[in-house]
Amino acid sequence: MSAVAEFLSRRRTRPAADARSGLQAAAEWLAHAQDASGCGGVSASYDAAKRQWTGAYPETTGYIIPTFFRYADFSGNDEYRQRAVRMAAWESDIQLPDGGVRAGTMDATQVVPTIFNTGQVLFGWLSAWQHTGDARFRDSAARAADWLVAAQDPDGAWRRFASPFSAHALNTYNTRVAFALAKAGRALQEPRYLDASVRNVQWALTQMHPNGWLENNDLEDNDRPLTHTIAYATRGILEVGVIAGQGSFVEVAARMARAVAQSQRRDGALPGRLDSAWRPASRWTCVTGNAQMAIIWQRLAAETGDHAWKPAAENVIRFNLSIQNLTAIDAGVRGGMPGSYPRSGGYMKNRYPNWAAKFFMDALMLQLEAS
User: Which InterPro entries match (predicted)?
Assistant: First the structure.
């Protein structure tokens, strides 16, 4: 048996943690990441090799907010509601004058607005307003949505205000921004936001190959996108389709999700990268992408009534639970989720990003609520 085959064999036989225990541990890890920032936002990641936390990250703090509100309801622990409100207030405090959200972490030297980050924080402000009724959060959401609509090109793409920390200015995974705008359109009763979201998805579909694979869909390598960004794009197309009543978008998302499912390994994990023929393009797995695809498969089961999506989600969740360390002495590791598995893989090497824990919580809550 080769070393790789032996490793995978061991992985298949390792018992998975209990889903509720894994959920609580991920929530506690994110709370620790918030405390580590010292500002109300959530530290972007923990570097296990250096044993240090990075600066607070506005983008991902934004979409952790709805996860914490949901977990407060799920667990009955009001601490997480209070934490979500502090995150939202911090986001409003640092919102840029034009309504946008800055690129990168708070320790980045450049302070410029960027499309993707603004869309992700929009999720948080909407959730905070809906849970608290605080007009400050509604105002922040409306200002962010107005800025996104003004920055959009007539064909639906966003070409301006790309992150200076990304290798590409044009991104089809901005459909996740469209998802946030669609939610804003519904919550704030503003048709302009919903129209902009639909235009962006329509543009993204012009970048699609006949097999459902999208061009311009990665942070660094558009020929071999991460399952993380594939999932961003797929979820955006799906949810805009649901909110806007565009059944064709839902069908496209299902085609993409089915192609990713066909790459699932025997141990439940997905290859970290996939090429334009949907073939594995890495030997490591992107743990965030695993969790995001579990969400998408469960959402498709709920929206279509087709429960054939569920086994893929259950298997990938079981894998992620099996690599979550609940007993580590290092609090930066205990309960968190690594960027890659093995941890030395090609995405967030040796780091535990907050967004991996966030999406894992979302996937687990969907599963537990349906059981």
Answer: 6-hairpin_glycosidase_sf (IPR008928)
Q: Is residue 11 part of a domain?
A: no
CATH number at residue 53: 1.50.10.10
Query: What is the pTM assigned to this prediction?
Result: 0.95
Residue 17 lies in a domain: no
Classified as helix, coil or strand, 137 is: helix
Say which amino acid occupies 85: V
**Domains held by the chain: number:** 1
Question: pLDDT tens, 31-42?
Answer: 999 999 999 999
Q: What are phi and psi of 47, to 5 degrees?
A: -90, 110
Rg (CA), the chain: 19
DSSP state letter for 189: T
371 pLDDT above the threshold of 90:
no
Sheet holding 351-353, edge to edge: 52-53, 45-47, 351-353
Alpha helices in 95-216, H assignment, sequence order? 115-132, 135-151, 175-188, 191-205
